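Q: Here's a chain of 335 amino acids. Please give me its 3D structure as tokens.
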Amino acid sequence: MNIVTLSSPGGLDQLKISDSPAPGEPGPGELRVRIHANSLNFHDYAVVTGAIPSQDGRVPMADGAGVVEATGKGVTDFQIGDHVVSTFFPHWLDGPAPIDNFTTTPGDGQDGYAREQVIRPQNWFTRAPKGYSHAEAATLTTAGLTAWRALVVNGGLKAGDTVLTLGTGGVSIFALQFAKLMGAQVIATSSSDQKLERLKALGADHTINYKTTPAWGQRVKDLTDGQGVDHVVEVGGPGTLPESIDAVRIGGHISLIGVLTGRSGEVPTSKLMAKQARLQGLIVGSRAHQLAMIRAIEANGLRPIIDRSFALEEIADAFRHEESGRHFGKICLTF
């Protein structure tokens, strides 16, 4: 089978595709899954470029979707032929978050899904939404579930709420889609007027070009009659957080889920206190969260936005496309 490995210390030129023996038969409680798709995330990019150090020879990619080829003794949740998608935290099945690191995350602390076949415990997967392609299913593990947890699980999103999304990456577009699905209003930002038009086509009620409107937090307040939004899906980190605090209403909710502008920086704590807002960090979600999200997707027919798909052997080019920032939605590998 084809498999991608990453040599230390990382870098896109250190990704190597090779032929590896098939994994054999699954043991008790395990599945053998034929992987057909991955999707790219900022976390995967940090691993393959060496920003997050990983073990020499690591198989990258946290998001994997495919078909169950064989089941081990005692498997009860799946049958041969089921379409499945991986989970980000394989040991976080339900309840409060039990982990604050990536030691169990495929593609980081564990070998991931940039390969054609894998044997893993059945709890490392859920069923994919009915009717989804493998590429569509692969977008859910990280980006889809992060947006779902930020708004629905942690934020308690309800009809009539207002949501602010930043940019046009996978998490932000999923957040827009989930918010509209739940009957919320959405204000979306981008530096590209062309992308802003595409966000409007997806249902954004208002859009802001943050390059031509650098004080976009105030603009959000103007669009909400001076109140601010109920929820901010904050993917930028220290470079955008001050404006997000300006944009949120008194007592509102900011989900801190990304560090695209850096890992540290000044936070206007007095302004956050004055807003009496809830700033909550989160990393993806549990298997139970993923199951709930998939039920909602199947009930409402939501489909993810895929910018472009690459072949497995084009993995470095796929990450270069992500690096360019030209994409709108998810980038996938299909094989």
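Q: Can you summarize the key feature?
A: Residues 144 and 174 are 6 Å apart (CA to CA).
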